[in-house]
Every structure is written in C-alpha cells, then in structure tokens.
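Customer ticket, subject: "Can you confirm the structure for Fe2OG dioxygenase domain-containing protein?"

Message body: Hello, I'm evaluating your service for our small team and ran a test protein. I'd like someone to confirm that this is what the system normally returns, since I don't have a reference to compare against.
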Amino acid sequence: MIWTGKALSSCATFLFQTWLKSPILKMITGHVQKAMKEFAVELEKVAEQLLELLCENLGLEEGYLKKVFYGSKGPTFGTKVSNYPPCPKPDLIKGLRAHTDAGGIILLFQDDEVSGLQLLKDDQWVDVPPMKHSIVINLGDQLEVITNGKYKSVLHRVIAQTEGNRMSIASFYNPGSDAVIYPAPALVEKEAVNSQVYPKFVFEDYMKLYAGLKFQAKEPRFEAMKNMETIVNLGPIATV
Ligand SMILES: [Fe+2]
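Agent reply: Thanks for trying us out. I re-ran your input and got the following:
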C-alpha cells in the first residue's frame, strides 16, 4: 500500500510502504525505484544471514528457518517508511501504540537524531536511542513460534516527541503466505509435546487474525490459532 502525506490521528504519517514483488513499486519511478530495489535486495540478504545466525545459535540445521519461511512461493519482503512529526502535546497522543510485530525478522533504520522508539524489557519501557549507521533488529511473532519461545517477539512502541521530526525505514522479512509455521521439532522437549504453548498454522491465517488484534497481547492470538488448528487439518508440512 502507499500512503502519501496521510496524517493519522496517532501523529504518525506513513510516507510509503512497498513490497518488492508488488506492482505498486511501479508507481515509484526513476532513481527512487532503483534505489529502493537495490536497498531491498541487499537488506533481504542481511535478513537471511541473520536467520542463519539464529539457526546456529539454536543448534538448528543450516537453512532451517529460511526453509520454513519459504512456503511454496518464497518469503515476502517489504519496506515501510514512516514519519512522526513533532507533537505539541505528546501526553495526549500515542505515536505508535505498543505491539509485537507479526512477521519474521525486522530491520529498522532509525532517525539519526530524533528518538521515540521504546521496547519493553523486564516490565520497563527502555529507550532505543538513535545510533548512526546501525540497524535495529527486531523479531516478530513467527520466530517466537518457530523457535518455541527460545526467541521472543518484543513489545515496542513509538512515543510522540515535542521537538524534531522522526523518520524511520523498517524492512520486514516475512514467511510466504502459505508457509506453515510451527515450533521446530528439534526445539520441543519430548516431554512437552502434549503441552505445547505454540500452535501450528498457515502464515496468512495468522495475518488475518493479527490485522484486527495488532495492539493486543500476542498470547490470545497464539491461543486463537491453536483453537483453529483443532478445526483445520493442516496436512503434511511442505517447507520448500
Ligand atoms: Fe512494530
């Protein structure tokens, strides 16, 4: 989707959001399109390298996470550029309400100067300060499920600022729409097989649920997918 200069009541403006394989990319022309494509190709590589590191850390076979994300059509990759203008009364406005991201791995270029991003750690909101030439890596709900909770998706929010205009570029490396998401068997304790916390589902079904529940806790979403799992027989898992 593309939003141009569409101010939201939350005091955030989404300049544009594009998915590499989307025809919408054709609406961005010339140098900008070329730069966006090159940016996406390179960042997708970084995301896949990070997935490999996660595999290594968890003792999963090489390429496991990439394979699970693949589905039948490959992963999806998108970039969203956001603008948070200064707000004279930030106490009355929420920049971006607390949520966990739905997808896989998120690579965020923050504004070099204006802060606002916070994450929840040990029940405390912690600032993620601007840091030049760095990428903030965030994990989404899908990685929490696949890693059986070894990695958690992190609750985060953006606080409106009285001064300065904050811009950010977030890129999302997500599973393909028909990818089947479930805890990696190698990470499930044998004795815990019958008391699994995390469900098995098709990614696009999760996204349909997430669309209406983004700003709510993730646990009820996992629970709802679990209930759906008992109704729908997912059949054999195809990860390639
Ligand atoms: Fe987010």
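A couple of notes from the result: Helices lie at 30-58, 64-70, 141-146, 203-213, 218-231. The first helix runs from residue 30 to 58. Feel free to reply with more questions.
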